[in-house]
Write a structure and sequence with these properties.
With about 280 residues, the chain is mainly alpha-helical. It contains 9 helices and no strands.
């Protein structure tokens, strides 16, 4: 549930921040007549994201066992690619996101109402589609319950509340620190999703090598215990992972953490040249 909640919170807050910046810009620019186009674009993006999530679930449910495992493996690998790109993109662009959005909205206002709706749609649709894919991939390792759905719903609702509070200037949080900590947690979650994707590839017979168990933690981490279920649902930590799963998990987690935690490069101003 925590992994789903974290995905909903992180992705939902990014979308909420985008919408709040657009709405605040229109209100302060005395262009409230364009607000219906913003909300129309947001509504269509939310509907598209929900339809995409339903399509993933429907497709997986109507495949044979091997096809289902292969489909879930591909979805997991795509989710890892998207979440990695999102984490490092936000790490780089968080400080300039607001200014870039205002500039794009100014250009859209000059083009007309449709351009405003399309901009709001694209800004939210990217986050929504990523959320649907990440949720589908992370929920595969959990038990067949409504817990992942409850988690992601609570995460989205929390992000909407935070975004509304930021818009009203009633909530003050350090967004850079927030995205740093959630980025670290999402890297661990993404490593677990990759591990599960490798597991699905082995179940489908696509990756038969290194399928022997790397170790057995069944005595210390029973699969039917509450903490075993919690770790499996949050980070996909299982008692008997295969060698390939452990290798994939470590090969992703360690380099991603090193790259994410390295200091940002700062560009020094050019030295003044002496006049001739």
């Amino acid at each position: 549930m925590f992994a789903s909640y974290l995905i909903g919170l992180r992705e939902g807050l990014e979308a909420t921040l985008v919408v709040s910046v657009l709405v605040a810009f229109l209100v302060k620019s005395d262009r409230k007549d364009r607000l219906p186009q913003v909300w129309a674009g947001v509504g269509v993006a939310v509907a598209l994201s929900a339809a995409f999530g339903a399509l993933l679930t429907f497709t997986a449910a109507h495949l044979a066992y091997t096809g289902q495992e292969l489909f879930e493996a591909i979805a997991s690998l795509l989710a890892v690619v998207f979440v990695t790109w999102m984490i490092f993109w936000m790490r780089r662009a968080a400080r300039t996101l607001s200014g870039e959005l205002r500039g794009r909205l100014s250009d859209a206002l000059e083009l007309g109402r449709l351009a405003v709706a399309v901009m709001a749609f694209l800004a939210v649709a990217r986050e929504g589609l990523e959320t649907a894919l990440l949720f589908f991939a992370s929920a595969q390792g959990a038990a067949t319950t409504t817990t992942p759905l409850i988690g992601i719903t609570l995460g989205v609702l929390t992000s909407v509340a935070i975004g509304w509070g930021l818009y009203l200037s009633a909530v003050r949080i350090n967004l850079t620190r927030f995205f740093t900590w959630t980025g670290l947690l999402l890297i661990v979650v993404a490593a677990g999703i990759l591990k599960y994707g490798v597991h699905d590839l082995q179940e489908a017979g696509v990756l038969p090598a290194l399928a022997t168990p790397a170790f057995d933690l069944g005595a210390a981490l029973p699969a039917d215990s509450w903490y075993g279920t919690l770790l499996a649902g949050m980070f996909n930590i299982t008692p008997q992972p295969s060698v390939a799963e452990v290798v994939a998990w470590a090969a992703y987690l360690l380099p991603a953490l090193v790259l994410f935690l390295r200091p940002r490069r700062t560009t020094l101003p050019a030295a003044p040249t002496a006049a001739a």
